[in-house]
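This week, look over our next protein:
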Amino acid sequence: MVTVSPNPTNHQEFFGTELGSIYLGDAAETLTERISDASVDLIVTSPPFGLVRKKDYGNVDAGEYVGWFKRFGHEFYRVLKDTGSLAIDIGGSWIVGQPTRSLYHYELLIMLCHECGFHLAQEFFWWNPAKLPAPAEWVTVRRIRVKDAVNCVWWLSKTAWPKASNRRVPWPYSESMLALLKNGYRPKLRPSGHDISRHFGVDNGSSIPPNLLIISNTDSNSHYLRYCKENGIPVHPARFPRYLPEFFIRMTTDPGDLVIDPFAGSCVTGEVCEELKRKWICIDTAVEYLEGAVSRFARPNDGSVEKSFRPMEYKASHPAAAWGSSDEPALPPDGGRLHRCRRRNEFSE
């Protein structure tokens, strides 16, 4: 059973299920009005990034981002339990007109720790193998930078001991580890000084995951996309793949725990929580995106819904795999500032 509010207003429930609710409104104001102190187990979200170019979903300029985010940070700290966690997917930004990076997402991390009181439990890096080579000017035109393919994900906590277990998010063993388990391993001291004991050869069924999350963002024909198209609803342009919030939901919460996504967009987090039996609250300011988000919780039960997508493995090449000889053209002495137009043989910045 689901309910949809016909005339949604700020901080009122827009949509609900037995496990969760979607609210329309500003996240900080909604949390203040609706959520009591120390009641939330996990906040996992992908807020609008501090980009230099405006997007349809209302991002804030990188130079103003930390100040804008501060009030959210204080509310996040207030509503989280002492054992709770905050996971923020935050992409980087390039400074206008030059091939250098903004520091805004690092400044955000420092502010959340120094001013709001959070601990940095661990930093993660989300590698999206499907990301296009960008920014094009520096990567594909002047060829003076590599493509920006990783987002930072800050895992923060109120105390140094948040509730968590990496046993919830196992990795499969590599081929080399499987061979080692099959053929046996002799304990020894590595040249690096690490003492690899006999316990290294114990088969635990899976491997401990790294803090590199390899998740391709290639959704192109989901029920959500079809629903939006069929009903003339705008698709949220910055959806994160379900496996990103699911990683932290699995690792840091139990069934029945409360998870909040304060910048929910199309409510991917709520959909994952619904499937994993977590209580959830999603908040967003854009009613048009929430109208599409409803489809994630009202799927038809007629066999037409696609089967659950199974993750695939991606190959990461060694950085030297395609290197050539050392006989290469000289590097541009100006760092690539002047770019030669191949067609007209002219230089421009």
About this structure: The chain has nine helices and 14 strands. Confidence is low (pLDDT under 50) at residues 302-308. Residues 172-207 form one domain.
